[in-house]
Specification:
alpha/beta, Rossmann fold, 6 helices, globular
Length: 140
């Protein structure tokens, strides 16, 4: 039996979104896949200006809800909380021994997404050398 593909999923405020769930289901239907959900502890709004590292509690909440939702959908998923800098979080996760075949980056829509302003999907592709799928979703 072939080994399952291992996909790193990078999401925060969109981790529980219908669009991300649909994209991961579709990938799992194409081939056996296990997912690692990386939720960078990126704060937003006023918290971002006050303390760049204030996003941990919110990120943990997003991760817990998303892991439950993805597992309920029949997906094999584990989770990890990451650095507030999403690029550093991806690098830390990969450097910690994560053998990944691809990355899915889930962001808010263009006009709302700080991650898209940072060009996160392309930066992740360049720094990891892995294929990256971008999912634009809404916070739910």
């Amino acid at each position: 039996m072939a080994e399952k593909a291992h996909v790193l999923v990078v999401a925060n405020r969109t981790a529980e979104s219908d669009k991300l769930l649909a994209a991961l289901r579709e990938r799992a239907q194409q081939a056996p896949t296990r997912f690692t959900l990386l939720v960078p502890a990126t704060p937003h709004g006023v918290a971002w200006a006050a303390d760049m590292h204030s996003g941990s509690e919110e990120a943990e909440g997003h991760m817990a809800k998303a892991l439950e939702r993805l597992a309920d959908a029949g997906l094999e998923v584990s989770g990890v909380l990451g650095d507030s800098d999403p690029i550093a979080a991806v690098q830390d996760t990969i450097n910690a021994g994560g053998e990944f075949d691809a990355v899915v980056v889930s962001t808010l829509p263009t006009h709302l997404s700080r991650w898209l302003k940072l060009d996160l999907p392309h930066r992740v592709e360049r720094t990891t050398g892995l294929p990256v799928q971008h999912v634009e979703a809404s916070a739910e």
